[in-house]
TrEMBL record, chain A:
PANTHER family: FAD-DEPENDENT OXIDOREDUCTASE DOMAIN-CONTAINING PROTEIN 1, SARCOSINE DEHYDROGENASE-RELATED. Its EC number is 1.5.3.24. SUPFAM superfamilies: FAD-linked reductases, C-terminal domain, FAD/NAD(P)-binding domain. This is Sarcosine oxidase subunit beta. Its cofactor is FMN; FAD. It is found in: Cytoplasm. Keywords: Cytoplasm, FAD, Flavoprotein, FMN, Nucleotide-binding, Oxidoreductase. NCBIfam families: soxB. Gene3D superfamilies: D-Amino Acid Oxidase, subunit A, domain 2 (3.30.9.10), FAD/NAD(P)-binding domain (3.50.50.60). Pfam families: DAO. It comes from Mesorhizobium temperatum. GO terms for biological process: tetrahydrofolate metabolic process.
UniProtKB/TrEMBL annotation, chain B:
It is an enzyme of class 1 (oxidoreductase). Its EC number is 1.5.3.1. One of its GO terms (molecular function) is sarcosine oxidase activity. InterPro entries: SoxD, SoxD_sf. Keywords: Oxidoreductase. The keyword Oxidoreductase applies. Pfam families: SoxD (PF04267). One of its GO terms (biological process) is tetrahydrofolate metabolic process. The gene is soxD. The keyword Secreted does not apply. This is Sarcosine oxidase subunit delta. It comes from Mesorhizobium delmotii. The lineage of its organism: Bacteria, Pseudomonadati, Pseudomonadota, Alphaproteobacteria, Hyphomicrobiales.
């Protein structure tokens, strides 16, 4: 499998681009593996990559029921940031940020990571105080954060309505300059290629339909392509967590599946060069490299496995966009779509050994798990390889709810509508 | 999506507020059964299919309703007042338009 380089680009250009190789093989499943990863989303693929790269475990299969990138890794709005309040979250997401900063180089695949910043707008002095507190908490742990004045914000985002008569006047904001966006498909493809070239079998159109057991131990899976055995079975299926865990006899989880929508407008000239979030409702926006404004808001608000959204949310998101950017009133929306998110009850993820012997679980990504993709795979691979969590993911257990150790960054208690 | 309130009739979903999973049972306030409290606060069945849930007609009669809705298709197979008289149960099929 060829390296991507200026030389290979030139060589293939001169030979009519006929000799590019597929980025990953299409092997048939073997009878057994050391590790099976269920779910070929960003997290499953990065797990396989780091298992091979960091721990030398290469006899691995990633089983994906559809095609790579058909889940949330290819449906998200690509925002990457590490601006959390609680230390467990800050450490984890900052670890991810550091991996992002070197990811294209590490994968030899351009994931188009763009550190254009992420700005959270404040609309009341109390909210600005709250952001100052969060910024201080971040800086305390070595993460960049700066408070911005309304005048600075107006210079950075000229199209924003910063007037005193705006429906929700802007009094300042919290900026993380190292935050930004990445090309989501490239993240999946880059990890897939990186895992494949180290020997990992990536098996698409292979749905896990049950678990095999030796006594009480999980020892493999049954799939739409037959039974496959493994010493260790890792689950990383995002919005399908409830369904897959039910196949293993676990009927309840601290998780609900909800649909989250996203939208993109027709292409515009450069309009906004940061990721911007609205502090008075739930709205966020950035501009893609093709020029479309990419934006989203809240979950639809009720349990859903439909990968499509409902109209009231469309209406609400558009109103919030216009409250901030009256000038966008005539811009046309090109597309909208939905993805099914695994909303955990405290808004934080679960990366853990168990809950059954031989099983490992990675879930609870809510609507912010894209930015976690590198650290999630890195920590999960560590946990699978060593049968213990790394310090960074040690707080993200499944039993933290039961033990009263929730990681509730928003401080809003048990609700599946956080982050 | 339309929800047929047994009191007001079919209304758009924007008139309603979702109150979550209707299967949960709150332990007695004095209960010290940690497993029961844990299950009530955090554990969810999260089915892909028919889901028993509570909605409030907050933009209408304000009644709390028990709704059975399919989480794959948004089809609603039954709506009833969450508490009280079972004679008022409205059974109907509303094609979920979302
Ligand atoms: C509209 C939207 C916007 C978002 N915006 C952002 C954002 O800006 N920033 C951010 O950080 N996060 C964002 N997220 C969240 C983020 O996309 C997800 O948390 C994250 O991608 C989930 O991890 P994943 O990539 O592994 O999941 P997925 O890509 O969904 O991977 C799970 C895979 O498991 C497979 N699977 C399921 N069941 C089985 C089975 N039985 N057998 C085999 N395979 C199975 C699925 O087909 C799927 O491919 C957004 C999400 C949505 C929906
Ligand atoms: Zn009513």
């Amino acid at each position: 499998m060829a390296e991507y380089s200026a030389f290979s680009l030139l060589k293939n250009a001169l030979t009519g681009n006929k000799d590019w190789k597929p980025a990953w093989r299409k092997p048939d499943p073997k009878a057994s593996y050391d590790v099976i990863v269920i779910g070929g989303g960003g997290h499953g693929l990065s797990t396989a990559y780091y298992l091979a790269k960091e721990h030398g475990i290469t006899n691995v299969a990633v089983l994906e029921k559809g095609w790579l990138g058909s889940g949330n890794v290819g449906r998200n709005t690509t925002a990457v940031r590490s601006n959390y309040l609680l230390p467990a979250n800050t450490r984890f997401y900052e670890h991810s940020m550091k991996l992002w900063e070197n990811l294209s180089h590490d994968l030899n695949y351009n994931v188009m990571f763009s550190q254009r910043g992420c700005l959270n707008l404040a609309h009341t002095p109390a909210q600005l105080d709250d952001f100052a507190r969060r910024g201080n908490a971040m800086r305390h742990l070595g993460v960049d954060a700066e408070l911005m004045t309304t005048a600075e914000i107006a210079r950075l985002v000229p199209a924003l309505d910063v007037s005193a008569t705006a429906r929700f006047p802007i009094v300042g904001g919290l900026m993380q300059r190292r935050a930004g966006t990445a090309r989501h498909d490239a993240v999946a493809w880059g990890y897939a290629r990186g895992a494949d070239r180290r020997g990992v079998d990536i098996i698409e159109n292979c749905e896990v339909t049950g678990f095999l057991r030796d006594g009480d131990r999980i020892s493999g899976v049954s799939t739409s392509r037959g039974e496959i055995r493994a010493r260790k079975v890792a689950v990383a299926v995002a919005g399908s967590t409830g369904q897959v865990m039910r196949l293993a006899g676990i009927d309840t989880m601290p998780i609900e599946s909800h649909v989250l929508q996203a939208f993109v407008t027709e292409s515009l000239k450069p309009f906004i060069n940061t990721v911007l979030t609205f502090g008075m409702g739930h709205f966020y926006m950035s501009q893609s490299d093709k020029g479309g404004l990419v934006y989203g808001g809240d979950l639809d608000g009720y349990n859903s496995y439909a990968q499509r959204g409902s109209l009231p949310v469309v209406d609400e998101v558009m109103s919030e966009m216009l409250a901030l950017f009256p000038g966008l009133a005539r811009v046309r929306m090109l597309r909208s779509w939905g993805g099914v998110c695994d909303m955990s009850m405290d808004g934080s993820p679960i990366i853990t050994i168990g809950p059954l012997p031989g099983m490992y679980l990675n879930c609870g990504w809510c609507y912010g798990g894209f930015k976690a993709t590198p650290a999630s795979g890195w920590c999960f691979a560590w946990t699978i390889a060593k049968d213990e969590p790394h310090d960074i993911n040690a707080p993200f257990t499944l039993d933290r709810f039961h033990r009263g150790l929730v990681i509730d960054d928003k401080g809003q208690g048990a609700t599946p509508r956080l982050h | 999506m339309l929800i047929t309130c047994p009191y007001c009739g079919p209304r758009d979903v924007i008139e309603f507020t979702y109150q979550g999973d209707g299967n949960r049972e709150r332990p007695q306030p004095a209960s010290q059964d940690l497993d029961a409290w844990n299950a009530y606060v955090y554990d969810r069945l999260n089915p892909a299919g028919d889901h028993n849930e509570i909605w409030q007609h907050s933009g209408g009669c304000r009644a709390h309703l028990r709704v059975v809705r399919n989480t794959l298709t948004h089809e609603i197979s039954s709506v009833a007042f969450a508490r009280g008289d079972h004679k008022s149960v409205a059974r109907h099929k509303t094609e979920g338009k979302s």
